[in-house]
Amino acid sequence: MAKELSICPVILSGGAGTRLWPLSRRLYPKQLLPLVGDKSMLQQTLLRTSTEKFSKPLIVANEEHRFIIASQLQELGIDSRHIVLEAEGRNTAPAAGVAACILEQTEPDALMLVLPADHVITDMDAFYKAVDSATPAAQEGYLVTFGIQPTEAATGYGYIHMGDGIPSLDGCVVVESFVEKPNREVAQQFLDSGKYVWNSGMFLFSVSSYMHWLKKLEPEVFDVCQQSVSNAEKDQDFLRLSGDILQSKSCSIDYAIMEHADKIAVVPADLGWSDVGAWSELWNLGKKDNEGNVVDGNQNVITEDVQNSYLYSDGPLVAALGIEDAVVVAADHTILVTHKSRAQSVKQLVERLKETPQLKNIPQLNIYRPWGTYKILEQGQKFKVKQLVINPGKRISLQYHNQRSEHWVVVEGKAHVTCDDKTFVLEKNQSTYIPMGATHRLENKEKDILKVIEVQSGDYLGEDDIVRIEDDFQRVS
User: Fold this and answer.
1) Which residue ranges form the domains of the chain, and what is each CATH number?
2) What does each C-alpha distance from 256 to 97, 200, 313 come to in angstroms?
3) Are 199 and 74 in contact (CB under 8 A)?
4) Vertex 108, ends 102 and 109: CA angle to 5°?
5) 397-415 pLDDT tens trace
6) Where are the alpha helices (DSSP H) in 86-182?
7) Rounded CA separation 373/381 (Å)
8) What is the pTM of this model?
């Protein structure tokens, strides 16, 4: 009896999404946001591959995002094969290499469907048909990529030059070459020729084929991937790669493998695809009003004489007057204003922030922790106000602070509090004071969430002023 084919979704979720700043931030990048629909793009990718056609997904992610990803998986009721953690992203070739090394241990005959976590695909039938077309080629040792039928002379995508069809492999075409992002004139020539497709960054190949070519073309990367997996440590629901992975150079699958290997194929397809690479793309995807405007977020936006613009607010009122083809985004106490035609350049603006002392430390307001989340509501020189949300059955570590005191006010739920040698319960609207140096813990033993307003005061309010004595998540100091 023939062995059943296994197609494992390998979902790459290490990107920063800087072109969608200020909503997309280092600690909460675009793939984890519900930018198109009510599910995050990671969740949409997971749902796309949750049919019987695919086995359990393997996710390669940034260590800082692990609790958000685990929470989003739990929300969907989807079990992953592994959530693999990188301390620092090394691009797609090493990430796929790590996934191949892991799969090789248990399913060496499997196919890997490599998918970025931050893409939108609206035509599911076309997506599944494209995977079906690519599968026989991948089984025959081809490295298969998916090309998107271009709808315009876009300059923000790489292109694939298609050659002849492959006999006996319907829907697959030989790849003549990969082309860097062209200028407008060259992109128009590509579009007119009908021989070019956009490079989607999605792939299907066997574990053995990818490992063969990675070892042959990038032996040092291959060795590092093997070492980082061999020395990986299991950490709750996560597989934490060893520091060996940091020795890998940063390189993409395209540059490292696809441009140099033999037996490269592309499946051209019209998937309703977008990589949501800029705010202008969210305008393209969004529902437009009579003036051609797209309003997202909490809808706290008013306009007068505004056309063909994208406007977003996560809280503050945005009032726009007499503008056209603009992007206005108010998120996390930060405002971005740009012309739609310059939306791709937001990445350069973010690079400037890193070089500007008074701006580079703009806080991330929503932070995920294994016990829940906290949000910074207000902060000054010697105070900080947070909203803590403790999930049912969870508790923070038993800890103390050397440089700050805290005041807790319960606004929803019931809190079980430890403060030095005392334990007590706080109901809604009740509060307590945690002195500097006091050993304390906040716990939610109930079935509903616990919300607490925490007011910190002291000379230093950094998160590194936490000394953990006991912790459910192996974070003892």
Assistant:
1) 7-274 (3.90.550.10), 279-353 (no CATH), 366-470 (2.60.120.10)
2) 11, 16, 40
3) no
4) 140
5) 999 999 999 999 999 999 9
6) 92-106, 124-139
7) 23
8) 0.84
